[in-house]
Amino acid sequence: MSQVSFTRSWVESANGHTDFPLQNLPLGIFSMAGGAPRSGVAIGDRVFDLQAALQAGLFDGAAGEAVTAMENGQLNAFFDLGRTPRVALRERLLELLREDSPLREKIQAEGETLLPPAADCQMHLPAKINDYTDFYVGIEHAQNVGKLFRPDNPLLPNYKYVPIGYHGRASTVRPSGTDVRRPNGQTLPAGQTEPTFGPCARLDYELELGIWIGKGNALGEPIAVGDAAEHIAGFCLLNDWSARDIQAWEYQPLGPFLSKSFLTSVSPWVVTAEALEPFRRPQPARPEGDPQPLPYLLDKRDQAGGAFDIELEVLLLTEAMREQNLPAHRLTLSNTQYMYWTVAQMVAHHSVNGCQLQAGDLFGSGTLSGPESGQFGSLLEITEGGKKAIELASGEVRKFLEDGDEIILRARCRGEAGASIGFGECRGKILPAR
Amino acid sequence: MSQVSFTRSWVESANGHTDFPLQNLPLGIFSMAGGAPRSGVAIGDRVFDLQAALQAGLFDGAAGEAVTAMENGQLNAFFDLGRTPRVALRERLLELLREDSPLREKIQAEGETLLPPAADCQMHLPAKINDYTDFYVGIEHAQNVGKLFRPDNPLLPNYKYVPIGYHGRASTVRPSGTDVRRPNGQTLPAGQTEPTFGPCARLDYELELGIWIGKGNALGEPIAVGDAAEHIAGFCLLNDWSARDIQAWEYQPLGPFLSKSFLTSVSPWVVTAEALEPFRRPQPARPEGDPQPLPYLLDKRDQAGGAFDIELEVLLLTEAMREQNLPAHRLTLSNTQYMYWTVAQMVAHHSVNGCQLQAGDLFGSGTLSGPESGQFGSLLEITEGGKKAIELASGEVRKFLEDGDEIILRARCRGEAGASIGFGECRGKILPAR
């Protein structure tokens, strides 16, 4: 783990209050009015256009190879290159964009060609997602939800042995800003034995960390927990929108299906493992009596530095709040430290049966709630399954999401003055059901 | 529904005992020694090379459009064209390959160029699979498995309302002939409270119908049950290999995960909806007391002809049986008539929440068992969860699959003399765990 230090950039907006100082350099796919999607790096309030910079001769060697792999407007092939070209690209970007860069004038001479304002850029999914897997490693969430069903025995017997996960729907993952159409579906009204069909009445968010898989593995060849870092390209925020009433009726015996597959939102910037390096932490000690992970999930380096200290926040903005110019209401302030399993353990578990992971696969962590009120990562937990209403400054109350409500996820890694980094936002607004 | 009739082909092997008479014309992707994957049609013991036939000027209009869409060695773009070009291609193929075809000599003049022996062709997956969904519509299987856990109440309350399904792993679907590496994983030994890690000891097959999705839908726009036919490209056999011991320990609360994701095998030929038209049947009458489907799942034409009469067979061939030249042992003889929901209902349900389906998505029906002994579509059912051993002519016994065992799925639609069609095989042999 390196120290959190701050290096100034000649891009002035990168030196103030921003998610994207020089230390971050997250990768993404953007387009400008009418243009084709292309790769870029967020820096302050600008996007550094990697394709244009390659054409301007600013990259060669491994960094050039990295940018060349992005030429089809997707990061998959770049992800598949593994760690070395990614690190080379980062080092070259630090060189190009730091305050005393010898290339500053050359870049600035191109005007906005190489550094368009982020406000003019439309963000896309960073990669073609082949498979999306949603885990359940937020132990506080598992306990909170378990309590609603089994007050005396909230955690199932496998929880502390198995990094529980399930296959999600890849086709409906969309970037931040995509509206959320309220789904229709079957639900079982309280006290009834026959379901009805109609709009979801218990629409919820789930606060998750997203993980982009880098280099894949061959079918039948597991990834060891100690080798997982080579297979992890980066991170994002993920909102696993959930229709609780549809879920309750459909999920036995094979798990959630239509209650989750109408939309999954991700923040569009891929925050790299390198940017997060200073915010790595040892895995929180397991409470006394908890079992040790089985050997295939155990790695000393992972135990020592496989967790992250990332602050996670959820905000709610209703139609009335927007009209009254009220600030967004904070629903959740949580942290990635509530993950019971590390990302390396998730990768090792997922592939231990020989399952093939591919570059551009997406993992969700599962909802990351803390143990305290104010730290709960879903309305299901905050309102105790719809029993307790949330009061808003607009005079409104909420148990679940209403049409017009917008949910905003944010994340922040806190370093010394100026050295904090963020993830950008993951937003979505609810549209009425069809 | 049309009558089952038989038209002779000038390809002689198509007129005898074959899965692929002129009435079938299934589509697939094949390659020959060192060549690139290309599209073809199975006819008798030959493969009609569509790309080569296009170059020879044998297709124009909508049929030409259909073959042109296959030029990248995948059927996705062709699937996405919907029904009309597929029907045009079928009509043209019937014209080209029937006994009195005016083009017979032109085609034969090319020798084996247009009609290589199937034995020389390696088959590939017909499409890039974006998402794979496994349903659970085999009600006899659901009851048989339910009885093992809940003898008095085998079916859960949602079963007769919801076409139950879950997201599967797309990256590990492979064509027939791919070996099955026995997976390692966590299992809970009987009577223990802590799991162990090692090779699966209860490896099983599951006999399923596979469905290839044709034209996709936009996010948020459900497909009506009456429109589903436009979105279904064709059918195959599917073996949902299952690690029962891993499944039992991992599946609560989010469903099967690693117990299914090590491999899923499919037969490589896409049997079209048109070829299956004569084998359509009314949906079996729901037993007295069963609820009517909710309106979004109900369509008169689907009720009248949305089911299929397809005979399904599973054979086992062990290493010792191969050495002793014994014939394969039939484990299962079942039928698609045991589907409680039609394929159109599966499509309508899957998309009713706005979930986007894409051309090349794969559905599994779920295990299709019949009610009688001899009709069970998995060893879990046949051996009652490993209690009753199967005796083989080789003197061996089986409760679950052993290394070296090969499972072969076959399917047959029985018409009048000569007018039966088959699906080809879906085979897989078990390799020892790593």
From TrEMBL, chains A, B:
<feature type="binding site">
    <location>
        <position position="260"/>
    </location>
    <ligand>
        <name>Mg(2+)</name>
    </ligand>
</feature>
<feature type="binding site">
    <location>
        <position position="150"/>
    </location>
    <ligand>
        <name>substrate</name>
    </ligand>
</feature>
<keyword id="KW-0460">Magnesium</keyword>
<feature type="binding site">
    <location>
        <position position="367"/>
    </location>
    <ligand>
        <name>substrate</name>
    </ligand>
</feature>
<feature type="binding site">
    <location>
        <position position="247"/>
    </location>
    <ligand>
        <name>substrate</name>
    </ligand>
</feature>
<dbReference type="InterPro" id="IPR015377">
    <property type="entry name" value="Fumarylacetoacetase_N"/>
</dbReference>
<dbReference type="InterPro" id="IPR036462">
    <property type="entry name" value="Fumarylacetoacetase_N_sf"/>
</dbReference>
<feature type="binding site">
    <location>
        <position position="264"/>
    </location>
    <ligand>
        <name>Mg(2+)</name>
    </ligand>
</feature>
<comment type="similarity">
    <text>Belongs to the hydratase/decarboxylase family.</text>
</comment>
<comment type="pathway">
    <text>Amino-acid degradation; L-phenylalanine degradation; acetoacetate and fumarate from L-phenylalanine: step 6/6.</text>
</comment>
<feature type="binding site">
    <location>
        <position position="251"/>
    </location>
    <ligand>
        <name>substrate</name>
    </ligand>
</feature>
<dbReference type="GO" id="GO:0006572">
    <property type="term" value="P:L-tyrosine catabolic process"/>
</dbReference>
<feature type="binding site">
    <location>
        <position position="134"/>
    </location>
    <ligand>
        <name>Ca(2+)</name>
    </ligand>
</feature>
<feature type="binding site">
    <location>
        <position position="136"/>
    </location>
    <ligand>
        <name>substrate</name>
    </ligand>
</feature>
<dbReference type="Pfam" id="PF09298">
    <property type="entry name" value="FAA_hydrolase_N"/>
</dbReference>
<keyword id="KW-0828">Tyrosine catabolism</keyword>
<dbReference type="GO" id="GO:1902000">
    <property type="term" value="P:homogentisate catabolic process"/>
</dbReference>
<keyword id="KW-0479">Metal-binding</keyword>
<dbReference type="GO" id="GO:0004334">
    <property type="term" value="F:fumarylacetoacetase activity"/>
</dbReference>
<keyword id="KW-0378">Hydrolase</keyword>
<feature type="domain" description="Fumarylacetoacetase N-terminal">
    <location>
        <begin position="23"/>
        <end position="126"/>
    </location>
</feature>
<dbReference type="GO" id="GO:0006559">
    <property type="term" value="P:L-phenylalanine catabolic process"/>
</dbReference>
<feature type="binding site">
    <location>
        <position position="240"/>
    </location>
    <ligand>
        <name>Mg(2+)</name>
    </ligand>
</feature>
<protein>
    <recommendedName>
        <fullName>fumarylacetoacetase</fullName>
        <ecNumber>3.7.1.2</ecNumber>
    </recommendedName>
</protein>
<feature type="binding site">
    <location>
        <position position="208"/>
    </location>
    <ligand>
        <name>Ca(2+)</name>
    </ligand>
</feature>
<dbReference type="GO" id="GO:0046872">
    <property type="term" value="F:metal ion binding"/>
</dbReference>
<feature type="domain" description="Fumarylacetoacetase-like C-terminal">
    <location>
        <begin position="140"/>
        <end position="429"/>
    </location>
</feature>
<dbReference type="InterPro" id="IPR011234">
    <property type="entry name" value="Fumarylacetoacetase-like_C"/>
</dbReference>
<keyword id="KW-0585">Phenylalanine catabolism</keyword>
<keyword id="KW-0106">Calcium</keyword>
<feature type="active site" description="Proton acceptor">
    <location>
        <position position="141"/>
    </location>
</feature>
<feature type="binding site">
    <location>
        <position position="206"/>
    </location>
    <ligand>
        <name>Ca(2+)</name>
    </ligand>
</feature>
<dbReference type="Pfam" id="PF01557">
    <property type="entry name" value="FAA_hydrolase"/>
</dbReference>
<dbReference type="InterPro" id="IPR036663">
    <property type="entry name" value="Fumarylacetoacetase_C_sf"/>
</dbReference>
<feature type="binding site">
    <location>
        <position position="240"/>
    </location>
    <ligand>
        <name>Ca(2+)</name>
    </ligand>
</feature>
<dbReference type="InterPro" id="IPR005959">
    <property type="entry name" value="Fumarylacetoacetase"/>
</dbReference>
